Amino acid sequence: MTYDYPEFRLPQEERILLGTGPLMRHVGSRIAGRIQIPHPAAPDAPELVQRDYLPHNPLDSTVAGRFNGHDWVDDDSIGYWAEAAHPEQHAVKVADAMAICKGDAGLMVTDRRFFVITAGHLFVHVREAEKQARKKKNVFSQLLSAAGDVVLGQHSFWQAGDPAIVLFQTDARVVRGWSRVLLGRSFPFPNVVRVDFVDGSALYCRCRKGSIIDGQEVRD
Questions:
Q1: Residue 65 Rama label (left phi>0; alpha psi -120 to 50; beta)
Q2: Its domain of life (predicted)?
């Protein structure tokens, strides 16, 4: 199967209003009352490379749905949560995209677009394409290719500067707005933003230092 995820590019004139980096946490969902932790990726999702680390396992009680309201947030293994009445709503489509890379994703809302991104080299098909492209070059490039394979084999996480790809993208007008919310029973409360979509669904996101909310960087 061919996967065609475009490279992430942000024109200078496009302004980031809301943005979160990779959390390396699970995506959970409650769709028409059914809880899924982690939210499943589609059966035909692209294969990921072997990872050096993965999100720690969610609590058994959380997976079983033994919590009230949004107390799933007290389980630190969950970074994103989709709440929807049916699977065709926007929050579920976002969760579907994030599940492809097992939650190692970031989201952005600009003055034009809403999109989910991740590092391209986390996927087997991207690395294979890079290998084939290098093999078509001269002998010196092939030596670099062999060295590059070693580096890629060790680099199975998303770090600053890695080229990103877009897993999901839509018009920013599907977003009604967003706000910080207080959830859970822990104190201090985790830093969570709720993104509300025009179709009535919602996506909850943990935000860490360096995230962008209302165009401003989170510093705590």
A1: left
A2: Bacteria
Looking at residue 161, the DSSP 8-state letter turns out to be T
Structural contact between residues 114 and 121, judged by C-beta atoms closer than 8 angstroms: no
- Residue 200: which of 71, 80, 25, 83 has the closest Cα? 83
Domain residue ranges in the chain: 16-120+164-217
Residue among 22, 11, 209, 40 nearest 122 (CA): 22
Torsion angle of the four alpha carbons 78, 81, 86, 88, in this order, in degrees rounded to the nearest 10: -100
Residue with tokens 């199975």: 156
Cα–Cα distances (Å) from 64 to 25, 200, 211, 215, in that order, read 18, 25, 31, 37
Rounded Cα distance, 203 and 91, in Å: 5
* Cα Rg of the chain (Å, integer): 18
3-state secondary structure of 107: strand
pLDDT in tens, 100-135: 888 788 899 999 999 998 877 777 777 676 666 666
Q: Give CA–CA dist 13/129, Å, rounded.
A: 31
Rounded Cα gap, residues 172 and 101, in angstroms? 23
Question: What number is the average pLDDT over the span 155-175?
Answer: 78
